[in-house]
Structure formats: structure tokens, C-alpha cells
């Protein structure tokens, strides 16, 4: 591939990635003023990894986690955002996301496509320490925003304490137990007051 063709492919990918800014999520900003978009979410998670990396289990590489988090929701350009508390056909969502990953990462030159797709796949399977920590952060950010906004998204989706503990507590405990130990009492207190 010539340098010009390579740059054309890279710019096509970057232009397509801009569409992530139009995908609206179920969570509001911390101040509750509006719903965040998926690009804002990805940026915020990268910042979480930068700031909270010291709380990761041994062996986690925060720089790799940041790379994963910047990429992890690009598939929502095609597949949309499925709220964590929504009733959804998870197999159908996963199939739509796989097809989106094929298309979106396929815009890149082959070497970059393979590298970034492998990183996305690693995040999805959450088998490595880096991916488990990235998944934990992806589940840790929304309840923090719910606590800051007095539970707007929890109220919107009729979330229960049991559902929150299952949907966010399990992955956080698996990838960043110190973060779950910190937030769990805050979540339980909110639901005790508002449930």
C-alpha cells in the first residue's frame, strides 16, 4: 500500500470514528444536564484509566487499557448503544457489534486493522488482566455518574440494587476489586434512600 493510500485509509477510519459523537448513551453527564455521547464516554474512561491505574491489580498496563477504552465503543457507530440495564437479546447485540467491528476496523490498513481489532476482541472477551481492568472501568464510570446526578439513568431504567450489583458489581469486582469496595457502599446507600 502506498503512503498516500495508507493515509487515505487511516483518514477514512478517523472520519468514520467521528460518528461516535452522535451515539447517545443512557447515562447523563455528572451534572445531569444532558445525556452523554459514546465518544465522551470513551474519552472519560481513558481518563479514568490514566488516573485510577494505580488501583489496578498487579500486571495491568494502564497504557494498553487506555488504548482499549478509546476503541471499545466504536462498534456503536453501527450497533448503537445498548443500555446496561435494558432488556436486550445479548446474542443479537454481540453479533451486531462483531459485524460493526469487521466493517469499521476494516477501513484501516491491514496491519493497523489487525492490531486494533485484536485489542477490541481482547476487551470483549475480558480474559486478560488489562481487559478485565478496562471492563471494570467501563462498569465503574456509569454508577459514579448516576451517584453524581442523583440516579437519573437508574430511575429512567427502573434499575434495582440487585440489578446494579449484578451488572456492574461483578465485572468491577473481577477487574478492580478496590474500586468496587469503594463504590459499593455508596450505591447501596443511594438505593436504601431512593429504592
UniProtKB/TrEMBL annotation:
User: Does the record carry Metal-binding as a key word?
Assistant: yes
User: What are the entry keywords?
Assistant: Hydrolase, Metal-binding
Q: Does the keyword Metal-binding apply?
A: yes
- What are the protein's GO molecular function terms? 5'-deoxynucleotidase activity; metal ion binding
Q: Which GO terms describe its cellular component?
A: cytoplasm
Pfam families cross-referenced by the UniProt entry: HD_3
Q: Which residues form the HD domain?
A: 19-180
User: SUPFAM superfamilies from the xrefs?
Assistant: HD-domain/PDEase-like
What is the protein's given name?
A: Putative hydrolases of HD superfamily
Task: Please report the organism this UniProt entry assigns to the protein.
Answer: Roseovarius pacificus
Q: What is the lineage of its organism?
A: Bacteria, Pseudomonadati, Pseudomonadota, Alphaproteobacteria, Rhodobacterales
Amino acid at each position: 500500500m502506498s503512503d498516500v493510500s495508507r493515509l487515505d485509509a487511516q483518514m477514512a477510519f478517523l472520519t468514520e470514528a467521528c460518528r461516535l459523537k452522535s451515539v447517545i448513551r443512557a447515562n447523563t453527564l455528572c451534572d445531569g444536564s444532558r445525556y452523554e455521547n459514546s465518544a465522551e464516554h470513551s474519552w472519560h474512561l481513558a481518563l479514568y484509566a490514566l488516573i485510577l491505574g494505580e488501583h489496578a491489580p498487579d500486571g495491568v498496563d494502564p497504557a494498553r487499557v487506555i488504548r482499549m477504552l478509546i476503541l471499545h465503543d466504536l462498534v456503536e457507530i453501527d450497533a448503537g448503544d445498548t443500555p446496561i440495564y435494558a432488556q436486550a437479546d445479548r446474542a443479537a447485540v454481540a453479533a451486531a457489534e462483531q459485524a460493526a467491528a469487521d466493517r469499521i476496523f476494516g477501513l484501516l490498513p491491514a496491519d493497523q486493522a489487525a492490531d486494533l481489532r485484536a485489542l477490541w476482541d481482547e476487551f470483549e472477551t475480558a480474559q486478560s488482566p488489562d481487559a478485565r481492568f478496562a471492563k471494570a472501568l467501563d462498569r465503574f464510570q456509569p454508577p459514579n455518574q448516576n451517584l453524581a446526578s442523583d440516579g437519573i439513568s437508574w430511575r429512567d431504567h427502573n434499575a434495582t440494587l440487585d440489578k446494579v450489583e449484578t451488572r456492574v458489581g461483578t465485572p468491577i469486582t473481577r477487574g478492580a476489586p478496590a474500586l468496587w469496595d469503594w463504590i459499593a457502599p455508596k450505591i447501596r446507600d443511594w438505593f436504601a434512600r431512593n429504592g
